[in-house]
């Protein structure tokens, strides 16, 4: 949706889950020397200023990444896995400068000389920001930015020549069509690129429960028809209980992963518990105060 700008939401609780899973998948891909191709269908600006008036207006980063960083100092060391600590160190290199890395920045930072990154963005201002933030060399053949529909880009450019790779899909879901397009695109791409790692971020919205369930169920059913033994992970970070009075519109978010890498499930479930301890409980206490 061309009215959507992620700066209002960058670093919120949904980004914590999405970007932790993304970080893990990229690290997993980097374990082998063979090159990979990474696709990002709804890229946004790539890098965000936490002191921007739009970020300050919503206060979502303050209740997400900023709160997490403050709380991390008080969490016991045994609750932090090596991978989670590595992710925090990565984030601190940005938050120390009042910046938050969006998915393209994370992808660019972790890719190697032999890897390829393909980004797609339609919003004119987001596109300009993305070019400025991500492309360091105008003739860099390893990073491509497409001003086109992410659904179209992904269908047109998969499977990659590298064979190995992954994709992050995270539309705004401000239009009902996004649920339909996500399901259709993922099913089509998985059929022709069955070994690709496909990540789908989705919001947890009480008024969209039926659309979300149908989308997830149909994607998983389609994937299992191709490979009955496919590794599928479906993570949920609920920062508010559905039983809460005055439940916020976005009470949490989810990440569906097809061809889930080894240990992703274990590591992410541990991280979700940390997120809940650091962010969710604090927000609920503030609401009750």
SSE layout and pairing:
Blueprint: H1 13-29, E1 37-40, E2 47-49, H2 53-58, H3 65-72, H4 82-95, E3 99-101, H5 103-110, E4 116-120, H6 124-134, E5 143-146, H7 150-157, E6 165-169, H8 177-192, E7 197-204, H9 209-226, E8 232-238, E9 252-258, H10 264-288
Parallel strand pairs: 1-4, 1-6, 4-5, 6-7
Antiparallel strand pairs: 2-3, 7-9, 8-9
Task: State the main characteristics.
289 residues, alpha/beta, seven-stranded mixed sheet, globular
Describe what you observe in this structure.
The chain has 289 residues and is an alpha/beta fold. 45% of the residues lie in helices and 16% in strands. The chain has ten helices and nine strands. It has helices spanning 13-29, 53-58, 65-72, 82-95, 103-110, 124-134, 150-157, 177-192, 209-226, 264-288, and strands at residues 37-40, 47-49, 99-101, 116-120, 143-146, 165-169, 197-204, 232-238, 252-258. Strands 5-4-1-6-7-9-8 form a seven-stranded mixed sheet, sandwiched between helices. A two-stranded antiparallel ribbon has the order 2-3. Helix 8 (177-192) links the parallel strand 6 (165-169) and strand 7 (197-204). Helix 1 packs parallel to helix 5 and helix 1 runs antiparallel to helix 10 (264-288). The longest helix is centred in the C-terminal third of the chain and has 25 residues, at 264-288. The radius of gyration is 18 Å and the shape is globular. The protein starts with 12 loop residues before the first helix and ends with a helix. The model has no long low-confidence stretch (mean pLDDT 89).
């Amino acid at each position: 949706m061309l009215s959507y700008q992620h700066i209002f939401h960058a670093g919120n609780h949904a980004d914590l889950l999405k970007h932790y899973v993304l970080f893990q998948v990229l690290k997993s891909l980097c374990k082998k020397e063979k090159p990979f191709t990474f696709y990002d269908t709804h890229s946004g600006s790539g890098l965000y200023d936490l002191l921007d008036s739009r970020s300050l207006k919503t206060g979502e980063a303050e209740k997400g990444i900023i709160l997490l960083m403050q709380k991390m100092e008080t969490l016991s060391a045994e609750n932090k896995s090596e991978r989670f600590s590595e992710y925090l160190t990565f984030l601190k290199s940005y938050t120390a400068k009042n910046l938050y890395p969006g998915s393209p920045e994370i992808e660019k930072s972790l890719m190697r000389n032999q890897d390829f990154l393909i980004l797609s963005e339609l919003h004119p201002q987001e596109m300009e920001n993305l070019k400025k933030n991500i492309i360091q060399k105008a003739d860099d053949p390893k990073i491509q930015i497409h001003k086109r529909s992410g659904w179209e880009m992904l269908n047109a450019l998969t499977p990659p020549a590298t064979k190995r790779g992954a994709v992050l899909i995270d539309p705004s879901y401000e239009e009902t069509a996004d649920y339909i397009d996500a399901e259709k695109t993922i099913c089509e791409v998985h059929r022709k690129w069955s070994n690709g790692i496909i990540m789908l971020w989705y919001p947890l919205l009480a008024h969209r429960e039926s659309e979300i369930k149908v989308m997830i169920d149909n994607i998983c059913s389609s994937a299992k028809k191709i490979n009955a033994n496919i590794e599928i992970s479906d993570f949920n970070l609920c920062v508010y209980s559905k039983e809460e009075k005055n439940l916020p519109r976005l009470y949490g978010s989810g990440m569906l992963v097809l061809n889930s890498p080894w240990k992703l499930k274990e590591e992410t479930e541990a991280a979700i518990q940390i997120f809940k301890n650091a962010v969710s409980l604090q927000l609920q206490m503030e609401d009750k105060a």
